Amino acid sequence: MPIFEYVCDDCEKQFEAILLREDQEVRCPECSSRSVEKQLSTFAVSSGSANTASPSSAACGPGRFT
User: Fold this and answer.
1) How far from the centroid of its chain's Cα atoms is residue 63's Cα?
2) Do 1 and 20 meet the contact criterion of CB atoms below 8 Å apart?
3) DSSP secondary structure string for all residues of the chain
4) The whole model's pTM is what?
């Protein structure tokens, strides 16, 4: 299920909504306004570690290109 980010035009609350259908009505959870704007969101991926380099990732060795 896709999660979309919105901002309310009336109260400026930022929120996320899970939509089951593309034509589903979205309302602000703070003021119940239907005047909301879909925000551009980025795709997030988690690998579990910021440094995932392993010895096998340096196939040619340091400074050697063959």
Assistant:
1) 37
2) yes
3) --EEEEEETTT--EEEEE-SSTT-----TTT--S-EEEPP-------S-S----GGG-TT-TT---
4) 0.59
| Rounded CA Rg of the chain | 21
pLDDT digits (tens, 9 = 90+) for 10-51: 999 999 999 888 889 999 999 999 999 999 876 666 666 555
- d(C-alpha 45, C-alpha 16), whole Å: 18
Strand partners, 16: 5
CA 9 to chain centre: 21
